[in-house]
TrEMBL record:
Low complexity composition-biased segments: 61-74
The name this protein goes by in its record: YneF family protein
InterPro entries assigned: UPF0154
Stored Pfam families: UPF0154 (PF03672)
Statement: the UniProt record of this protein carries the keyword Repressor: no
Subcellular location: Membrane
Regions crossing the membrane: 6-28
Keyword terms of this UniProt record: Membrane, Transmembrane, Transmembrane helix
Protein family: Belongs to the UPF0154 family.
Main location: membrane
Region Disordered, annotated ranges: 61-85
Entry annotated with the keyword Transmembrane: yes
Species classification: Bacteria, Bacillati, Bacillota, Bacilli, Bacillales
Length: 85
């Protein structure tokens, strides 16, 4: 019965790590959904990362976040048009 002293803590650690991971992912997704609908929150996050977004950049960031919702990414074409040589 000594093996219980080794197996139970290891199983508990694994279950805790997996559970913590899924709770963290759930929390992060909810925060991203809030930022998507609240431009001020998105602006605040950008400033914390050292970026200062103008209105056009803010709209593009919101479109990107909406495109990533549900695990799908949408292609957003470059505003300049095609390639230049």
């Amino acid at each position: 019965m000594e093996w219980y002293n080794i197996v139970i803590p290891i199983v508990t650690l694994i279950v805790g790590l997996v559970g913590g991971f899924f709770i963290g992912v759930f929390y992060l997704r909810k925060q991203m959904e809030k930022m998507q609908s609240d431009p001020e929150m998105l602006q605040k996050m950008a400033k914390q990362m050292g970026y200062n977004l103008n209105n056009k950049q803010m709209q593009k960031a919101q479109q990107m976040m909406k495109g990533q919702q549900g695990g799908q990414q949408k292609f957003i074409p470059n505003q300049r048009g095609g390639k230049r040589r």
